[in-house]
Amino acid sequence: MASPPMTATPRRRKLREPSAARVFAVDCKLSYTLLGDTHFLFMVHALNGMDQEVLEESLRITPTLEHEVHVDEALGHRILRLKAPTGPLTLRYRAKVRLSRPTPDTSAQEVPIEALPYPVLADLMPTRYCESDRLASAAWKMFGDLPPGYSRVKAVSEWIREHVDYRTGSTDSTTTACDVFLQRAGVCRDFAHLGVAMCRALNIPARLAVGYSRFDTPPPDFHAVFEAFLGGQWELFDPTGMTDPGDMVRIAVGRDAGDVAFATLFGSVETRLIRPEVEQVRSRPARSTT
């Protein structure tokens, strides 16, 4: 007689109080010179979901072009698709976004593999930029004896910040987590890739998150951090230490940078300007009526 299929007992999520809601203003400007007809896939729209809400937004493309916006059914991120002719192209996206992000749950525990939701299992696997299989031996030697949970992921993030130099121009679009681990230099996406790969090597689901963050140096750019699945929820970590990840306005999340590039193009292009800016909107004090 066949045994009934085994099912994991779902764990009850710990409910967390969101931090005070904050509103951020996004102003993203991109400018290119196209040397021929070019197809673009842009990811610049703020994600409308998870722990953030788009209150208002606008998009201006110069010259005016036909375009479409595809919404990912699973995660809600948006992809802008267009074809542009030879000549200048500028894009300006503006939005106001309310964040109602829970404070980090520093007591969150790692979820046993047998209890992980099926959609999360893909975030355990090695990918092009996050070769967790090749980093497994190092990850377990460095972090395997630490108490499992939030504190172990925090230790991974802090190790990256302390041992990898933030160096603009030190990497390119082909650089992987293994490359960064060996050369000990990179930019935000490289730091995040290494964090993702180390977590996956420790059997902790992890993914890349990209969006708008404010930091003074280097100049404004899209920012990448990583998320780890702990206690049944996704927790944000920024191994660069340059921002508070709780203040990032998400654009998208994915397995690695191949899923969440802000611009994918098919053609010959010269980049003139990339300026994604974000500022918190401060509420004005109420006027006295006396």
UniProtKB/TrEMBL annotation:
InterPro entries: Bact_transglu_N_2 (IPR048930), Papain-like_cys_pep_sf (IPR038765), Transglutaminase-like (IPR002931). Residues 180-241 form the Transglutaminase-like domain. PANTHER family: BLL5557 PROTEIN, BLR5614 PROTEIN-RELATED. This is Transglutaminase family protein. It comes from Piscinibacter terrae.
